[in-house]
Design brief:
Radius of gyration: 16 Å
Distance between the termini: 7 Å
Order of helices and strands: HHHHHHH
Shape: globular
Helix content: over 70%
């Protein structure tokens, strides 16, 4: 089952467990979590930590594609494509923060969209964990 972990299984597990934890915290804290998310992710001025994490994410995306090219892992490109989709969000965080901020405010202000996001994140995270444990290991 998890006898030979590689970069892709670790990436899937790490990404899946972090997002799954965030979704469950969102679910259990409810409105408090939405208020915290609004304050944290929709601050008027982009926080320095957000820039640092965005740059680190970009570095990890580049390394992931390097790993696809150099490691012999079947269908490794699949996780690389999924991971690369986050670059869209990173672009807005780094280069059009106001648009990102407005989207966060609009999205996190409605309990229906927050609930739908949490459902999607739980399903996607479970898929990532499954891929990390059963597919890429």
């Amino acid at each position: 089952m998890f006898s030979n972990p590689n970069f892709f299984s670790i990436l899937c597990l790490g990404w899946g467990l972090i997002t799954l934890t965030y979704a469950f915290v969102n679910f259990f804290l409810g409105k408090k979590s939405a208020e915290w998310s609004l304050k944290t992710f929709a601050a008027e001025k982009r926080p320095l930590w957000m820039t640092i994490i965005s740059v680190l994410y970009l570095v990890l995306v580049v390394y992931t594609w390097y790993a696809v090219a150099t490691m012999n892992v079947d269908k490794s490109w699949l996780i690389a494509v999924l991971f690369s989709l986050g670059v869209i969000k990173i672009y807005f965080i780094l280069f059009d923060y106001e648009a990102f901020r407005q989207l966060c405010i609009e999205f996190l202000s409605k309990s229906t969209t927050v609930a739908l996001l949490n459902i999607f994140v739980v399903i996607f995270s479970a898929l990532l964990v499954f891929m990390g444990v059963f597919y890429y290991s």
